[in-house]
Amino acid sequence: MSGDRRRTKYDIYADILEVIAKKGGCSLTRISYGANMQDIYGKKIVLRNGACAENICGESITIEAYCKVLGQIRYTKELKIEGNVSLHAPPQKVGTISI
Hints:
Shape: globular
Strand order of the largest sheet: 1-3-5-7
Distance between the termini: 23 Å
Structural class: alpha/beta
Largest sheet: 4 strands, parallel
Number of strands: 7
Strand content: 25-35%
């Protein structure tokens, strides 16, 4: 798929189904990477134990132990980070985020 246009929800569903068909039962992290959905945007975000993401942008973000963030973390209200988390860059508190 071309990176020049924004994917529709149907494009994403198709990519997710393709990953599940190829890999069978697998973790949400593996599915998200297979479907090129590494960036996470939302109001309240919880990255569960051992999950991996590229960029995270949200109002309130919780990152549980053993997670890995390969890009940036941008938040507007609250950030909680548990132990043994790998961060590529320091988190940034910002005024607004387009969600």
